[in-house]
Amino acid sequence: MNISTTVEEVSGCDPHALPDSVLKSPRPLVLRDLVSQWPVVQNGKEHPHQALSAIRACYRGRPVSAFLGAPEINGRFFYNDDLSGFNFTQIEARLDDVLDKLVEYEGSEIPPAFYIGSTGVDAWLPGFRRENDIGLEAQNPLTSIWIGNRSRVAAHFDYPDNIACCVLGRRRFTLFPPEQVGNLYVGPMDLTPAGQQISLVDFAEPDLERFPRFQDALAVAEVAELEPGDALFIPGMWWHHVEALSSLNVLVNYWWNPAPDYLGSAADALTHAILSIKELSPEQRKAWRTLFDYYVFDLPDGGLEHIPEQARGRLGAIDATAARRLRAELLNKLRQ
């Protein structure tokens, strides 16, 4: 693919005092050398196996979930031909055993594919963050580690904001704004490789006869190339295709939701909308779209001025008390 637009780069950020211009950016940002001083990054620059040794030193034996793929998948963890399953096997294994396999096949031209994804750092590698961390205490992020050899993870989105830190190996991210969902040919919601629905387009060999609108998505795509020590801020809901380009790759990422914890899940709201609105008549769906736009997405300035503030109820600001009341009301109705 020929993508001419690169993600905007920012240099010189203090990893323990990231500015709001990064943390609240509406667009992706490459944060060059953000974690280049992490000891595990420095170890990897001396020799990749030293980074793996630093990870081993924190491991306490808890099994990890690993994806295994035959050499024929070329690192593309994906569906099988009829989308009834996947082209890889998921197993529980010791982390050090998987690391041994990665080293064993490090020099192979077409190795089996190994992938440990989204594994909680604090639970599986206690002590790792004492020396290898960024300052996001206020955001209380979920911190995860991703380890494997060469891989291609299909374009998908995550609900939270994300900072992905390249620890070992090289990574390429291809990113699309949320409104490109219709041009990415997204697969099933009920069966997904790792929880989020994914694009069915093979980015290495896009079939533009089958997926013609993908060309429109490419026109607004942005690409980011990360070296060890670099990081990438990905705003929530942005689609991203991820390639691990080296024989040994490690990434640590931080997810956090900028919205208050007491608010409900937008994903659950989408599921309920599919249940309750999708099968209505076109006229009814149009009417509900108007209501959603008015009350949720695009309330006009002054749209509630005709209602006294103390009488606005759920139309006013949602605090923790109001959220609990609405959640209880929904639960009662869903039980009926």
What does it look like?
- The structure is a single chain.
- With 336 residues, this protein is of the alpha+beta class.
- Helices cover 26% and strands 24% of the residues.
- The protein contains 9 helices and 14 strands.
- It has helices at 20-23, 39-46, 48-58, 95-104, 121-124, 214-219, 266-276, 282-297, 320-335, and strands spanning 9-11, 29-32, 64-69, 76-77, 88-93, 113-120, 142-148, 151-156, 161-168, 171-176, 222-226, 231-234, 239-244, 249-256.
- The strands form 2 sheets. The protein has a 9-stranded mixed beta sheet with strand order 1-2-12-9-14-7-6-3-5.
- α2 (39-46) runs antiparallel to α3 (48-58).
- The longest helix is centred in the last third of the chain and has 16 residues, at 282-297.
- 31% of the residues are buried.
- The model has no long low-confidence stretch (mean pLDDT 95).
- Tally of contiguous helical segments: 9
- N- to C-terminal distance: 51 Å
Number of strands: 14
Mean pLDDT: 95
- pLDDT below 50 for ≥5 consecutive residues: which ranges? none
Describe the strand arrangement of the main beta sheet, using strand numbers.
1-2-12-9-14-7-6-3-5
Largest sheet, strands/sense/barrel: 9 strands, mixed
- Estimate the helix proportion, in percent: 25-40%
- The secondary-structure element order is EHEHHEEEHEHEEEEHEEEEHHH
The chain-level structural class is alpha+beta
Share in β-strands: 15-25%
The general outline is: globular
- Computed over alpha carbons, the radius of gyration is 22 Å
